[in-house]
Amino acid sequence: MDLRVPSGWFFTLLGLILLGMGVFAPETHAALTTANVNLYSGAAMLVFGLFLLLMAWRATRLEKGSNT
Amino acid sequence: MKLAPVDYVILALYFAFVLGIGWRLRKRISSSGDFLTSGRSVPVWITSLAFIAANLGAVEVIGMAASGAKYGIMTCHFYWLGAIPAMLFMGIFMMPFYYGSKARSVPEYLKMRFDEKTRAFNAFSFAVMTILASGISMYALGLLLKLVLGWSFTVSVLASAAIVLAYTFLGGLTSAIYNEVLQFFLIVAGFAPLAIVSVAKAGGWQGIVARLPSNMTHAWRYMGSPTENPMGAELFSMIAGLGFVLSFGYWCTNFLVVQRAMAADSMSAARRTPLIGTIPKMFLPFIVIMPGIAALALSKMNLGYALPLKATGGPDYDQALTTLMAQFYPAGILGVGLTGLMASFMSGMAGNVTAFNTVFTYDIYQSYIRPGAPDRHYLTVGRVTTVVGVLLSIGAAYLATRYNNLMDLLQLVFGVVNAPLFATFLLGMFWKRATAQGAFAGLSIGTAAALFTLSSTVAEGKGGWIANFHTFPSQMAQNFWIAIIAFTTCFVISIVVSTFTTPRTDKDMEGLVYGLTKVPHDHTAKWYQRPAPLTVIVVVLLLILNIWFR
Fold first, then answer.
1. What are the tens digits of pLDDT across the range B139-194?
2. In angstroms, what CA-CA distances link A64 with A40, A57, A61?
3. Residue B511: left if φ>0, alpha if ψ -120 to 50, beta else—which one?
4. Residues B474, B484: Cα–Cα separation, whole Å
5. Contact residues on chain A for B305, CB-CB shorter than 8 A
6. 3-state secondary structure B128-141
């Protein structure tokens, strides 16, 4: 099992949930900040998750290439 | 703090992935080696992150933020001074002997190099300490969840223990290590946003410097005198006690972390595991310590934020992290932060449980209870020990609820047992003249010296049960000095006794000692895969950080 696959999916899903919160409920924020924390951290997590998936996909493609 | 449905969804999603990874890895287990040592097959980026994640338990995450609020930026020395140099030493100098000796555990190396009684000493004390450590961290988590979220202590302790048990039982060490990497990512994802928003709110680093006393924002300037710096420890004991004895004793001999490197798929990968691990390790303070420092600055800003008080008076630093989460995190990211806290707890506990089952199965059961059985039998014993380890940890957690001082006591016991060990390894690996009698005498007298120092000196009103020869300015200074004394005693006694006893022949010690071991030079490795250039990069980065925050 390539660990990048489950980790990548996990952070992609997490990123989508937070990004959704940030887009559809931009006014939810805690007492001491007005920043849209969900939006920014969700975007960062989504990028990280997709990056892991991309790396895993690239690795399987290289492996297939070297086998044939 | 109140959780929204989305926070529960995130928590559930995390549990599903953790269990899923365990389930997928179950097929890789066909021998006791697969279960207990991962069959030496894990890629290096995974072992490197697991190496630091296994040490990043809930007690550490909460404690580092607390120390940030209590001691300021000096807390970073637990990373920069108290971890990085030792991790480099371990990768460059010690890993060739651990990995090359084919030992399956740290106590087993002691048996190969010295003898049965040194192994037994190490195996038993290690087994007891891992169980207590995982029980204490379970206790800390249960208390925190009860305090912050009002969850029942019993439910949160049993549920989190059940999940850790499920994935370590299914996939063994590989599953623990793979999950530790996911947990590491999640700890970063859960706490990095908190560090960013809380520091920004406090006016950035400049704003924090302006609001706090100067000795809270300088890591080195006030190290000269124990009365000026908030830790109450002076330069010598910081460097020799924390930077040398305690950190080298932990990072180079504690099987909990060494096991991660030993699971790597080659000697070169095993050596690079701690070296690569230093890079994320040196930046972790910005995520786990910075929020604590920011919390202290925020509490001086008339924002309505204050550190909660303890029942006995004085600020309750342990709540720094969770109160900040409540103040800065809306529903959504709050779920991620809380999941990060759970993840840190699980990585710490799984680390303890997987180290415990290996030491018990190989170093206690196979050595003293039933040697020579077929491997299938040891695989079963390993699985059963995993269950027993979790049950004993739960017992230790409940013991902690009944005896409040257990945690204090444990920290002292860790110091007493760990401190002399590094002298034994240093001599064992680098001085072929060191004998088994010397090692055992040094270890036992060194431990006794540590106990004696503890019970004949006083710090913050504790210790001094026999007499009081000296009063330390802080408990931290006392811990550092106990370590220095234990190490020196063990070192000297081992040398003296060794010179009077017969050494083993060189042939018996091939692969175990410096000078009798061929350290492989991997000529095909690219420059960044070799230990020397990696170390140079790490040292330069470390110097820059220390000069920046001097």
1. 888 888 888 888 888 888 888 899 999 999 998 888 888 888 999 999 999 999 99
2. 37, 11, 5
3. left
4. 16
5. 32
6. HHHHHHHHHHHHHH
Report CB contact under 8 Å: B20, A6.
yes
Phi, psi dihedral angles at B42 (to 5 degrees): -95, 135
- Do A37 and B197 count as a contact with CB atoms less than 8 A apart? yes
Task: State pTM to two decimals.
Answer: 0.90
Residue A42's pLDDT is 93
Beta partners for B458? B463, B471
Task: Determine what percent of chain B is predicted with pLDDT higher than 90.
Answer: 23
Contact A14 B13 (CB under 8 A): yes
Per-residue exposure over B479-508, b if at least 16 CB sit within 10 Å of its own CB, e if not: bbbbbbbbbbbbbebbbebbeeeebbeeee
Domain that holds residue A52: 4-25+36-62
In a domain, A30, yes or no: no
What average pLDDT score do residues B78-96 get?
90
Which two tokens mark B311? 């029942």
Residue ranges per structural domain of chain B? 5-402, 413-519
Q: Does B298 sit within 8 Å of A32, measured CB to CB?
A: yes
Does A68 reside within a domain?
Answer: no
Q: Does residue A12 lie within any of the structural domains?
A: yes
Mean pLDDT along residues B112-127: 89
Out of B46, B328, B330, closest to residue A28 by CB: B330
* Per-residue pLDDT tens digits for B489-525: 999 999 999 989 888 888 877 778 887 777 766 667 7
Q: State mean pLDDT over B287-312.
A: 85
Number of Cβ pairs closer than 8 Å across A and B? 91
User: Is B326 part of the contact surface with chain A (CB cutoff 8 Å)?
Assistant: yes
- Domain tally, chain A: 1
Q: For B395, phi and psi rounded to 5 degrees?
A: -60, -45
Q: Domain spanning B5-402 has what CATH number?
A: 1.20.1730.10
Task: Give, rounded to a whole angstrom, the gap between the first and last alpha carbons of chain A.
Answer: 21
For B20-37, what is each residue's pLDDT tens digit?
999 998 888 888 888 888
Q: Is residue A56 part of a domain?
A: yes
Do the chains contact at A33 and B328, CB–CB below 8 Å? Answer: yes
* H or E, element range at B463: strand B462-463
Nearest by CB to B303, from A21, A32, A45: name it. A32
